[in-house]
Amino acid sequence: MDKKLRIGVIGAGRIGKLHSNNLVNRVPNAELVAISDVYEPAAKELAEKLNVPNYYADYKKIIDDKSIDAVFICSSTDTHSPISIEAAMAGKHIFCEKPIDHDLDKIKKVLEVVKEAGVKYQVGFNRRFDRNFSHVRDVVKSGGIGDVQIVKVTSRDPEAPPLSYVKVSGGIFVDMTIHDFDMVRYLSGSEVTQVSAVGACLVNPEIAEAGDVDTCIITLKFANGALGVIDNSRQAVYGYDQRIEVFGSKGCITADNEVANNTVHYTAEGVYKEKPLWFFLERYNEAFIQEECDFVESCLCDKPTKVGAFDGLQPVLIAIAAKKSCELGGVPVNVGE
Fold this sequence. Notes:
globular; 337 residues; alpha/beta; 7-stranded mixed β-sheet
């Protein structure tokens, strides 16, 4: 394919840097032409590092540039929905980091405007593009384990985020578990109908003072009758713990942690193997690249995106139900109520 998708990245923080670097160096048919950030020196530094011709403090200059086909929204969460709406109304395809918003009405407005504009919209649930997780989904979808009965996700960060981040994150269910809510939908092929969640502060008591929990267990019921379990912790001292399992009437399939190498060293003193990779940028970078490639292909070939705006709404609905259940001490809450 000779045609390239001309892209502007909005937000030059950690995730904006990741996407920008990948778009320049790892994604065929992508042409990064502009970067914006409210802190213009950050946009300037990133643009100069990657030889991107334009940088701005005002993202509207990217929106108004008719030569730009698509935007990557990597700015703060509170800007995701308004920028999505502006970009859609300007006729640009949109890749938006999760979540679209914390406010359901604002998310629904984005869905409405995107549909009216007829543009592509993809939400950054990158774990769907992990090679192992996507293989698990393919096996499940093909009937390889029969009828799905239990879906299990373990997701534990290597260290807790700073309190300054926790206070503006929206809480563990919207910030961290939202990836797992998307994953159970993806793996099961079914919507979550009911949630029960319990949580505690077992890592850092100051997180409780900020109104959040750092450890939680969530049980779920699905429309297809299956059950699910998610366990989260803000701190796993051995690394970034990411495991899934789908159990069914004809078998079971699992995906374990990624490690630096899969060797096992046996000695008289013990058996040794590598710990999980430490951070999400190491663990999921290939998945980030794959989701970016898929988005570019969807735009250039007029294909549906694999993680659309509706997929951005559903995990937020589940997260809201989980938060309510946790506040009520684990009482089951129906999703969407």
